């Protein structure tokens, strides 16, 4: 029984990689439906015989040989295989692998990033020149002052949880920025601040943030180093610890600012049961419904990132925020345009394109 | 009107007690429910079913003991499916707490099959049919490194064997030899596989997640980046149903057993919401 | 200088971290892999030392000053020391230099206290217990918050009913269309909202990361500005 071989075997350097790989493609055998698959054979320059390097199933017409040496030329044949029957293709062209210095598939990302950076720097320049930049009211952040004041009047502490993620998470950085502002207020009003941490590095950063905030308002003596501490890196053990703090210390105000997982509702609902005012902010979209249900104010997604600009009103930060908003406007514009084009393309009546 | 005020302010402890009862009682007096598989579950099942013999199923056990009741049944169902179809399986974890859970699942399912096996061919043999690579960190290094060479990321497996010496690893070298990676997780770990693994190497990704996390995964399912999705206990029960009805593989179905309790718990929550709203509307009408 | 060096480190490594995304060449990829697989791991390992030091200091101070519930600090510190000793010297499966199993004489019963046993019998049930609290808290939160106060709240309430009922196999087998409606809610309006939020968060992350790399955002250094 004879089977048709695959045809038109081509080989070329695998694009956009670190080298060491060649892509091979071919046209399927006419008997593709009855064969077992395709065996790929390789001949390195200087060798005399083809060596089998791989086998793939029927219906597939490409393969990546990722064990090549850069600079050495290779030639390939592909054989259709059915039991012990083999039918070989003609040899391919010679190809050699090499590493690329730029991934051309990602050029669109580079262009948009460049536009985005330009927008941010442009608005920062505008801000430095004194242009007034409007930022809409964010209820959760406007309530920070009121929340701290409430705790001071009641003589109760403030609990601040800077999220459960690591310091390389943007939400954690945003949470630490807000912690600085809250710490300045607690320093001024002499309110007790409790900051339990789940991550050891976040703990060290949070400690420095609070200490620096107290120093900035002229109250370095009031800083209590034991107010910021590491609890545990176990997620639910941390949640249990925070619940314990809430029920024992009975804070008047709870802040949950950062990245959270499933423990969010455990902490927020316990806080709600103690009667504390609660302000939460997270970019963990999945936890937002729990915070919205259990907390008085919630910062949604990028409102958390805008917090440092909003609270400090620093021109540089406001300018960056504006640039970010314009970047979003560009994306919205592109989405609307492409949606419209897709709609027009699919309208048979109009038949415009 | 005091009655309606009380309706709006039922003591938390009463709510917790009633919920505890409606969850416990179905476990004592169970009733079996056979869920019909929804498209995201069926898509994942069909894709795994069609993995060719030269490729492996990789299961990334990325959950911790707290979510074990919801996610472990999914891992077990996936393993039963793969072993029944003689698909090679590679298992890893991206979090150290998943190691014990992954090993428990592998041991349990391998034993189930080996108790029924009559020949060596029928048996599930470590190294030949499945490998437990273990845990490495950081996760990004693992996900990207497996695209180059799995044995470089996991030079030894969980049991201390050199991975390159294992029979299965002679053919399963990197993502090119992987049919699909199914990340069983209660967090955003499946998205790391999509963002880094799929973007760099084009791997297929399946997601098995808790019901709460699943809402976050639907955008990736719709865009085709995720091949299928098992969502929560119900998703696990649906997959168990498919494995049993289509392959005839029997075994304890923990997710399906929990459906009775889930049913009564959901009805209870809905009842409480309705009660609260009745009180709310009655009082609002009175104030008008 | 105290602020300039960290800012310079952040700038250099921020840029170096972004470059491998665009440059696939082996030199760049190998350097990036080396950094992630070696350097970062060492930093993470040392950070645990800081964390343990913080716990010890915090609870030691609590004991020394006899603050409220100071007795529980002894529990914490003793547990920390015991599990560290067992983990370091007892081996994973009772195969270390420290004996972690005791066989009762005249019985077959072995009492094991190796780290795997501690994990399986203490960590696992404790973690599952904490997670199971979510069911109760969700019930009380839903009861308290899901009130049809206005149109938006009513739509939320209706959607919650549909999704909860569809998650029940009994109901979805009687009303199969309910499952598809629930899927529609999750795949269309829920996905649309999440995508919008996702775009905003992605851009916000990008902007915040850029601000940190360029040294505009310095809150993480300690203090603001």
Give an account of the 3D structure.
The complex is a heterotrimer of chains A (353), B (288) and C (225). Chain A is α/β, with parallel strands linked by helices. Chain A has helices at residues 107-128, 139-142, 144-154, 170-189, 200-216, 235-249, 263-273, 288-294, 302-305, 307-312, 315-345, and strands spanning 7-13, 22-27, 37-44, 51-57, 62-65, 73-82, 85-88, 95-96, 158-161, 193-197, 228-230, 253-257, 277-282, 297-300. In chain A, the strands form 3 sheets. In chain A, strands 11-10-9-12-13-14 form a 6-stranded parallel beta sheet, with helices on both faces. The radius of gyration of chain A is 31 Å and the shape is elongated. Chain B is built from 11 helices and 6 strands. Chain B has 2 domains: 1-30 and 254-288; 47-252, Rossmann fold (3-Layer(aba) Sandwich). Helices cover 56% and strands 13% of the residues of chain B. Chain B is α/β, with parallel strands linked by helices and 288 residues long. Chain C is mostly helical. Helices cover 74% and strands 3% of the residues of chain C. Chain C has helices at residues 4-22, 26-64, 71-89, 115-145, 151-166, 169-174, 176-187, 189-213, and strands spanning 101-103, 110-112. The longest helix of chain C has 39 residues, at 26-64. Classes of the chains: A alpha/beta (353), B alpha/beta (288), C mainly alpha (225). Chains in contact: A-B, A-C, B-C. Chains B and C meet through helix 2, helix 6, helix 9, helix 10 and helix 11 of B and helix 2, helix 4, helix 5, helix 6 and helix 7 of C.
Report the total helices of chain A. 11
CATH topology category name of the largest domain in chain A? Rossmann fold
The biggest sheet of chain A, with number of strands, parallel, antiparallel or mixed sense and barrel status, is:
6 strands, parallel
Look at the structure and give the mean pLDDT of chain B. Answer: 90
Outline of chain B, from the CA principal axes? elongated
Summarize the structure.
The complex is a heterotrimer of chains A (353), B (288) and C (225). Chain B is built from 11 helices and 6 strands. With 288 residues, chain B is of the alpha/beta class.
């Amino acid at each position: 029984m004879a089977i048709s071989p695959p045809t038109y075997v081509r080989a070329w350097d695998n694009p956009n990689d670190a080298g060491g790989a060649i892509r091979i493609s071919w046209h399927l055998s006419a008997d593709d439906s009855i064969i077992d698959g395709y065996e790929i054979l390789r001949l390195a320059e200087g060798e005399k015989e083809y060596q089998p390097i791989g086998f793939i199933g029927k219906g597939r017409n490409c393969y990546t040989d990722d064990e090549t040496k850069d600079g050495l030329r290779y030639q390939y044949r592909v054989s259709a295989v059915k039991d012990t029957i083999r039918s070989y293709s003609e040899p391919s062209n010679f190809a050699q692998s090499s590493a690329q210095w730029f991934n051309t598939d990602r050029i669109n990302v580079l262009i948009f990033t460049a536009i985005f950076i330009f927008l941010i720097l442009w608005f920062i320049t505008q801000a430095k020149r004194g242009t007034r930049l409007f930022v809409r009211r964010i209820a959760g952040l406007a309530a920070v002052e009121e929340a701290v004041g409430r705790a001071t009047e009641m003589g109760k502490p403030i609990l601040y949880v800077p999220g459960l993620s690591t310091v390389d998470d943007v939400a954690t950085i945003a949470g630490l920025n807000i912690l600085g502002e809250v710490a300045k207020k607690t320093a001024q009003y002499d309110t007790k601040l409790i900051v339990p941490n789940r991550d050891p590095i976040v703990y060290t950063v949070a400690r420095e943030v609070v200490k620096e905030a107290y120093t900035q308002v002229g109250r370095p003596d009031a800083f209590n180093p034991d107010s910021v501490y590491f609890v545990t890196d176990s997620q639910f053990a941390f949640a249990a610890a925070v619940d314990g703090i809430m029920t024992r210390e009975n804070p008047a105000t709870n802040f949950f600012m950062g990245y959270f997982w499933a423990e969010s509702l455990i902490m927020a609902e316990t806080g709600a049961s103690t009667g504390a005012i609660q302000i939460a902010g997270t970019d963990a979209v999945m936890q937002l419904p729990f915070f919205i249900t259990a907390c008085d104010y919630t910062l949604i997604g990028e409102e958390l990132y805008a917090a440092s600009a909003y609270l400090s009103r620093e021109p540089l930060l406001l300018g960056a925020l504006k640039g970010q908003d314009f970047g979003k406007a560009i994306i919205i514009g592109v989405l609307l345009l492409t949606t419209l084009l897709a709609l027009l393309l699919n309208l048979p009546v109009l038949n415009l394109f | 009107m005091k009655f309606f005020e009380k309706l709006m302010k039922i003591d938390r402890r009463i709510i917790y007690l009633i919920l505890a009862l409606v969850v416990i009682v179905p476990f004592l007096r169970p009733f079996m429910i056979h869920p019909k598989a929804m498209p995201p579950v069926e898509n994942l099942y069909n894709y795994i079913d069609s993995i060719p013999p030269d490729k492996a199923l990789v299961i990334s056990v990325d959950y911790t003991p707290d979510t074990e009741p919801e996610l472990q049944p999914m891992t077990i169902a996936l393993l039963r499916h793969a072993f029944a179809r003689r698909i090679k399986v590679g298992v890893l974890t991206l979090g150290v707490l998943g190691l014990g859970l992954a090993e428990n699942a592998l041991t349990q399912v391998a034993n189930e099959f080996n108790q029924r096996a009559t020949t060596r061919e029928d048996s599930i043999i470590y190294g030949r049919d499945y490998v437990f690579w273990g845990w490495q960190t950081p996760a990004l290094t693992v996900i990207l490194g497996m695209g180059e060479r799995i044995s470089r990321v996991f030079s030894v497996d969980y049991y201390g064997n050199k991975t390159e010496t294992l029979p299965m690893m002679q053919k399963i070298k990197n993502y090119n030899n992987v049919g699909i990676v199914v990340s069983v997780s209660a967090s955003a770990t499946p998205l790391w596989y999509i963002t880094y693994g799929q973007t760099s190497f084009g791997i297929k990704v399946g997601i098995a997640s808790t019901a709460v996390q699943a809402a976050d995964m639907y955008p990736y399912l719709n865009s085709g980046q995720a091949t299928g999705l098992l969502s929560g206990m119900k998703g696990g029960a649906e997959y168990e149903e498919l494995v049993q009805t289509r392959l005839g593989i029997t075994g304890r179905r923990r997710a399906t057993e929990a459906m009775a309790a889930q049913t009564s718990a959901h009805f209870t929550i809905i009842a409480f919401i309705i009660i609260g709203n009745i009180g709310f509307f009655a009082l609002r009408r009175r104030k008008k | 200088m105290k602020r300039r060096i960290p800012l310079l480190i952040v700038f250099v490594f921020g840029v170096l971290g972004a470059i491998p995304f665009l440059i696939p060449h082996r030199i760049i990829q190998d350097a990036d892999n080396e950094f992630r697989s070696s350097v970062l791991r060492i930093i993470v390992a040392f950070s645990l030392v800081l964390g343990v030091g913080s716990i010890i200091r915090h609870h030691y101070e609590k004991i020394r000053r006899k603050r409220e519930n100071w007795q529980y600090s002894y529990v914490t510190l003793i547990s920390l020391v015991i599990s560290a000793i067992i983990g370091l010297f007892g081996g994973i499966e009772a195969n270390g230099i420290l004996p972690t199993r005791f066989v009762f004489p005249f019985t077959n019963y072995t009492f094991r206290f190796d780290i795997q046993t501690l994990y399986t019998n203490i960590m696992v049930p404790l973690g599952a217990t904490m997670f199971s609290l979510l069911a109760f808290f969700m019930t009380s939160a839903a009861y308290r918050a899901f009130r049809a106060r206005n149109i938006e709240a009513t739509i939320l309430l209706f959607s919650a009913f549909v999704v909860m009922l569809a998650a029940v196999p009994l109901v979805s087998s009687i009303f199969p269309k309910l499952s598809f409606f629930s899927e529609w809610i999750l795949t269309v309006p829920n996905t649309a909202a999440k995508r919008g939020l996702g775009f905003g968060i992605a851009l916000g992350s990008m902007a915040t990361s850029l601000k940190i790399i360029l040294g505009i955002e310095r809150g993480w250094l300690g203090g603001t500005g």
